Amino acid sequence: MCGICGIATRRGPMPDTGLLTRMCQTIVHRGPDDQGLLIRDGVGLGVRRLSIIDLEGGHQPIHDADESAWIVFNGEIYNFPELRQRLLDRGHRFYTRSDTEVVVHAYDEWGEACVEQLNGMFAFAIWDGRSQTLLLARDRLGIKPLYYAVSDDRLVFGSELKALLAVPGITREVDLDALDDYLALEYVPSPRCIIRGVNKLPPGHTLRWQRTNGDVQLRRYWDVDLTAGEGAPDGVPLPQRVDELRTVLQECVRKELISDVPLGVFLSGGIDSGAVAAMMSRLSPGHVNSFSIGFTDRSFDESSYARQLARHLGTNHREMILEPSMVTDLVPLVTESLDEPLADASIVPTYLLARFARQHVTVALGGDGGDELFGGYPTLLAHRLATTYQRMPRMLRERVVRPLVGRLPVSLDNISLDFKLKRFVDGAGHPLGERHARWLGSFTPEQRAELLTPAVLDALGHEPDVAAQHLAAHAFADPLNQVLYLDIKMYLENDILVKVDRASMMVSLEARVPLLNVDLVEHMARVPVSLKLRGQRSKYLLKAAMRDILPQAIVERRKKGFGMPVARWLRGPLRELVSSTLHPDKLRREGFFQPAYVSRLLDEHLQGRRDHRKQLWTLFMFERWYERYGAGARPAIASAGATQGQ
Prior knowledge:
- By secondary structure, this protein is α+β, with helices and mostly antiparallel strands.
- The protein is built from 28 helices and 19 strands.
- Strand 18 and strand 19 (537-538) form a beta hairpin.
């Protein structure tokens, strides 16, 4: 696991060692063990290394046999031993035992198509001196990040946005359309970035930059195909489906246990992390280290289930309790490191869990991706119920249901009925893509029209809706597959995986997600959606596969999620910090948000009249980001508004 960065120039001065070093220093947390630089042919590559495989010999950048191709690499290739043997059989010779060298030799053998041979999580850059091209690549699901910016004279890239911000000429102007996306979704969806002129390389894509003419070519080499399980009747007996899933799951976990350093597992107390831990225990009985986080707030706490799982599987279990008094230190620490705003509050306990685990191991496996893969989110059932709701007479919906739901008392619990019902009623009458965003996100279009200042509203370019673009690219026979696809391409990629990557990398811990191993993803893509959601039972196939492996209480318990008591903490330990961060004078100077509207949200929440946890946290995280990374963005509003009005 590493952090990578680089500059490729067509004209002008060569990249210098000092600049590359400064870029590397911004991501030193991703790789505290080693640093490597390469400058040649107008291209500079930099890397910070966290040593996982070939601890002594894996220094990067790594080259091929004749030193014409050089690579900087972030991630792990789980099938590299098999690939290495295939390449040896074809005459390649290696000078390290690392998976990174296998990738550069795979490039020599198969060219850009080498990515199709890789099973792993990765983002890498290869400079090919023979063809004078730079190849950037990102793994299929977007587990590892990669930002880039292209101008007439150069291409700049890095594992995190902060590496690009260290380069002169990369402005800190806020992309207002990306801000609008963030307010709606709680994240900035790829390929957009919060900074104007910077992009994220989409998952399953390569980018080829030609030094001779500056030509840039994006190519998609993979996408999840959920239509594979549609159409033909499913005649496969359930016991066979169970056996197949267990076999694939265990093999994927086995592949991801490859390491030259100690590893463990995050144990939440749910079926996803439980399934991963169960496979680890089968493969290495008595030697699995598990870690969990608990809360003093019982409506959020799952630590008792994690302990039950640990006892059942025989893991070496450790847990830590997140006390409210810790929040005032943790939140500033986390927000200081986030170089792109992310409004998923669970990044705070995820960071604490990663920091806790890092005291004992260097690699940790988790259960992320299980909800998207097996059909675990409550929104799947909600979309089905929305169809029934839409058939109700409009008068009944508007004059009876909506007023009744609006009168429900405010609760600040994790699973508060009023919060969920109000969101359901607000979104149920809209088309699938829009209601999905309303249920999961923060600010609706109507709310953003009140929140944003006239200058920002005038400057918005009204870019195409990312969710609509994803849905338009596929013809799904089952609407539930539309939801699963959106979850994979939007929420999983831009929220869950970003959260896990940033939180773990802040403490130099490698986090692996075996449920997103390409073999398991493609296997589950061929499984009919009826085996994911059957009636009102979510994760039907996974639960059937785990029924005699995990405790019954774990298999059958309802999904809870890994959150934190944001609603209460906004009124408690974070009250002063949030109030100062969202102070009207500060907002007025910046020019993004209407101070009176934000003050109303804050007052209603602090007084307990309304639950605005999502909206306030979304604003708070943006403002914390803007204070740290977005200085100088305000002129972009004026200039963009002037252009719009001409």
